[in-house]
Design a protein that fits this description.
Elements (H helix, E strand, L loop, with lengths): L1 H11 L5 H21 L10 H13 L4 H20 L26 H10 L6 H16 L3 H5 L6 E2 L4 E5 L5 E5 L2 H16 L18 H13 L9 H14 L4 H8 L4 H5 L2 H15 L6
Antiparallel strand pairs: 1-2, 2-3
Helix pairs in contact: 1-2, 6-8, 6-10
Length: 294
């Protein structure tokens, strides 16, 4: 009951995305099962500090990575904060609980030369599928939008007269992203091909049967084409988002502008890309400075 009320709260009041709500629900249910098995059916609202701490230990022993554990703890923090605010509990069992340390890792990105090879030299298949694949790859790279945001684009969200794309980001926040003439032409070509195929879905990007594109196919397309031009470990839509930000920063864009385009809530989320830019500056300095090799 308390879990259902909390999920309803973050959906209606906080306007969290469906993906986030599903993730929260899964985390809470996993902890509830743990309490059932280890502590004789202790209700989740009555869990105490040492029981939550033992769940963390259990997850670590199972090999769950620290980042995932900390995300689950973030879910619990939100849940118990909600219970405390609504008078269900008198003390927050999360108080003083720290998650495992995670190693800081710079965002993975595709080098500019590899993106040029992909978009300018790689031959895409003829017909609807190839035109669609290129259009969605170009959209990711030109805009830096999230996977869920791309899946949510409808035809009416594109304003060719104003050269803007409207996307719905986290917590249902709308933002407008500038469209370049190059991307506009690519999207117009794709839309014509989609219409010629007889696909009438309001969703911009669709599968080979004309249905709104789903996450699994989207990931598969991105992974397939990135594998043709780069050997980086991760080849996901989010890597293209990192690539957009890194390349924008390396080519002189201001952090504030990148933040607004990407829909980050704070500048701190955007600043992570300065690490990649710094590495490039180090390489330039080493090659260009006359005393760097002495």
């Amino acid at each position: 009951m308390h879990i259902e009320n909390f999920l309803h709260f973050i959906q209606i009041e906080k306007r969290y995305s469906s993906n986030t709500i599903t993730s929260y629900k899964k985390d809470l249910e996993q902890f509830q099962v743990f309490l059932h098995l280890q502590y004789a059916d202790v209700p989740i609202e009555r869990a105490v500090f040492h029981q939550i701490r033992s769940w963390v230990v259990y997850l670590m022993q199972k090999g769950v990575n620290p980042k995932s554990i900390n995300r689950k703890l973030s879910t619990l923090r939100s849940f118990y904060k909600y219970l405390l605010r609504n008078g269900v509990i008198r003390q927050n069992p999360m108080q003083g609980l720290q998650g495992p340390k995670t190693a800081k890792r710079n965002p993975a990105f595709v080098p500019e030369t590899a993106m040029e090879q992909l978009l300018d030299k790689l031959v895409f298949p003829d017909g609807f599928e190839g035109i669609r694949d290129r259009a969605l790859l170009e959209t990711f790279y030109f805009t830096g939008i999230r996977r869920a945001e791309l899946m949510g684009i409808r035809h009416q969200d594109i304003d060719f007269s104003m050269h803007t794309l409207k996307v719905i980001g986290k917590r249902n926040k709308e933002r407008l992203i500038p469209l370049s003439p190059v991307l506009e032409e690519i999207l117009k070509t794709y839309i014509r091909e989609k219409n010629n195929a007889g696909f009438t879905s309001e969703s911009l990007f669709v599968n080979n049967n004309g249905k709104p594109i789903q996450s699994r196919l989207l990931y598969s397309i991105v992974h397939k084409y990135l594998s043709a031009v780069t050997t980086i470990d991760r080849k996901s839509p989010h890597v293209l988002r990192h690539t957009f930000a890194t390349h924008m920063l390396n080519n002189g864009a201001e952090l504030d502008a990148i933040k607004e385009i990407m829909g980050h809530a704070s500048l701190a989320a955007t600043q992570v890309y300065t690490h990649n830019s710094l590495e490039k500056l180090k390489q330039v300095h080493k090659k260009a400075h006359p005393r760097s090799s002495k």
